[in-house]
Specification:
Elements lengths: L13 E6 L3 E3 L5 E3 L5 H12 L3 E6 L11 E4 L3 H11 L5 E4 L6 E3 L18 E3 L3 H6 L6 E8 L3 H11 L4 E6 L8 E8 L2 E9 H19 L2
Parallel strand pairs: 1-4, 1-6, 4-5, 6-9, 9-10
Antiparallel strand pairs: 2-3, 7-8, 10-11, 11-12
Helix pairs in contact: 1-5
The structure holds cytidine-5'-triphosphate and calcium ion (CA).
């Protein structure tokens, strides 16, 4: 179905989305990042716009075009992403956390380019705050949707994550089949149980996820 004819499940709702990887500086020219093209998060943003939502998209470094109608905030590090999310979250109805956030940052990044030598180079890494868990733990949180990319034990790890972060809905996918690809196969995990969406292009998967999110959101806010 053409974008303009999608049902307006989220008319007037404010949806905040994180997408893409984050990038943690090592020195002036180097950094640590995660494998993520941002395609899934941007597809979710387009699907939410089609569904009538007002969309704020907090994006890590990607080469993707801004979905028409989205308010886009570009960030680099996980800490920047946390700050952008915290600044936007108070008026949010639904938070969809698609970003592949770096779990660690470099403790003492160098302002100058580090010169190579023949020795082992040791980087000290410290844990980043969990943006999604912070938002879900707020006194009056938005409806929170998490993503989990796993390389093994997909459903078990996914459900553990959903419970640990106190999420009404988590989208789980097998990393080997998702990263960088144009299609995807995901499982939706919620209090009703687990169900699989058939393999499809990311934009179609995104529409199904947004539709399901809207359904659960309206169930929670009856
Ligand atoms: N997430 C986040 N902030 C972080 C880490 C993760 O907001 N610092 C979010 C992701 O956007 C995703 C969910 O938490 O929606 C799960 O991310 P994932 O990396 O799969 O889980 P982690 O809790 O980081 O556990 P691990 O990487 O060890 O599997
Ligand atoms: Ca992680």
């Amino acid at each position: 179905v053409e974008a303009a004819f999608q049902p307006k499940y989220l008319k007037g709702k404010k949806v905040l989305i994180t997408a893409g990887p984050t990038f943690e500086r090592i020195d002036a020219v180097r950094g640590i990042t995660n494998s993520s093209s941002g395609k899934m998060g941007f597809a979710i943003a387009r699907a939410a716009l089609e569904a009538g939502a007002e969309v704020t998209l907090v994006a890590g470094p990607t080469s993707l075009k801004t979905p028409v109608g989205a308010r886009r905030l570009d960030v680099e590090s996980s800490k920047d992403m946390l700050a952008a999310v915290n600044a936007a979250v108070s008026k949010t109805d639904i938070f969809i956390s698609v970003a592949a956030v770096a779990d660690y940052y470099v403790l003492n990044p160098s302002e100058q380019k580090i010169k190579k030598d023949a020795h082992i180079l040791t980087l000290e890494l410290a844990p980043n705050p969990d943006i999604l868990a912070n938002v879900a733990g707020l006194a009056d949180p938005p409806f929170c949707v998490g993503f989990a990319a796993e390389s093994e034990n997909l459903l078990e790890y996914g459900e553990q994550k959903r419970r640990r972060k106190k999420l009404p809905l988590l989208v789980a996918n097998q990393v080997q089949s998702a990263i960088g690809a144009d299609d995807n196969e995901v499982f939706l995990l919620d209090d009703h149980g687990q169900h699989k969406l058939p393999r499809a292009p990311k934009q179609e998967i995104a529409r199904a996820i947004v539709q399901y999110t809207a359904k659960l959101y309206h169930e929670y806010h009856k």
